[in-house]
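Re-run with default settings, no changes from the original entry. Doing this only to confirm the output is reproducible before filing.
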Amino acid sequence: MQDHSDSHQHDSIDPRNLALVANRWLLRVRGRVMVEIEDTAGRRLGPYRKNREVLEKEVEDVSQHNVSPNLFELTIPGATYNPGRSFTTAFLGRTDRYSFRLQGQAPSVVDVYLTAFSSNNRLDTAFFHAIPMTEDSRASFVYNTDHPLESIAIKLLPKPGSEVLHISPTAILRPSESIDHTPPTTTIAINSDNSVTLSATDHPGGSGVLRTHYTTDLRTFSIYEGVPFLIPADAKIVMAFSVDRNGNQEYPGAVRPVLGVHPNVVVFQATVGNAQRVAQQIQAFNLDPVPLTGPLEWEASTEEETPWLFIEPQAGKTPGLLTLSVHTNQLQANTYTARVLVKARTPETIFAERAISVALELSNPDLLSYPERS
């Protein structure tokens, strides 16, 4: 006798509760991984697996018909697949038992989100936070869509031959949290000792702040651990952004520009009695490499009264030039020093005051030595 318990179970569902029955699923993976999904029939979403006959056919198509070879296989009915270098999404539109495989492409921390949908509503989200992976790492999990999201557990193989780790969801985000589409807001505070304190807040009713990232060069990003950090002398920018528990990422976040000058040491050499004014140029610029923060207003002056040193212009915007020149009238042979201060007038600029060391080496013309004539 055939068992109709499953059909009876579905028939008995109150129509008012149909809005809570999942029938679609969205996978989001943030991190440097390749994502592959397979259903019980062996149909796949993921990198194309070429057998010999397919490979020979593609080579023939490329050579004879200028047809590009397939890069991905998309054979699961009702599914979509959008692979990216650091963010991949896949949408599954049928109930089934799916196998998910993640292959590391580069060192990164990986966040995995699997969200269930009903016909009219977004439901729960299973969330896995900061899974450490490298190009040698492999991760996988199986999900039967008839089971709750809490049943998912990821198996992580950090590297070949290592012990397999079993990872449970970091959190199950309820519908009120998983419908959150607004990222957190990050603020940067510069302390009196030139250290930086970061803070992040999520909007009321949001899923909550997960973590905050920061960088001072746009190449290396660190996770803020709640401890103030010092700004390195070679900083080009101070940028911080946050991610919430539902994967909403703030961009660009909070950004502070950094004032730069070049060169910061200038040496003039002149002789007594030479009335010609000697000049050198200084560049003033915003070190922001993107750029995100726009021009900076600056002003320049000598630290102390220095009648032999002239600055033109004494104010401007980045990128800009200021000219330093010396006038040696009324000066005796000696070495003179001064400092020029270039100050940013744009609020919230990092290293808003830069110093340029200036030296004037003034010598008597009769003390100059010349090579003997043969």
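Confidence is low (pLDDT under 50) at residues 1-19, 51-55, 65-69. The chain has three domains: 19-178, 185-257, 259-366.
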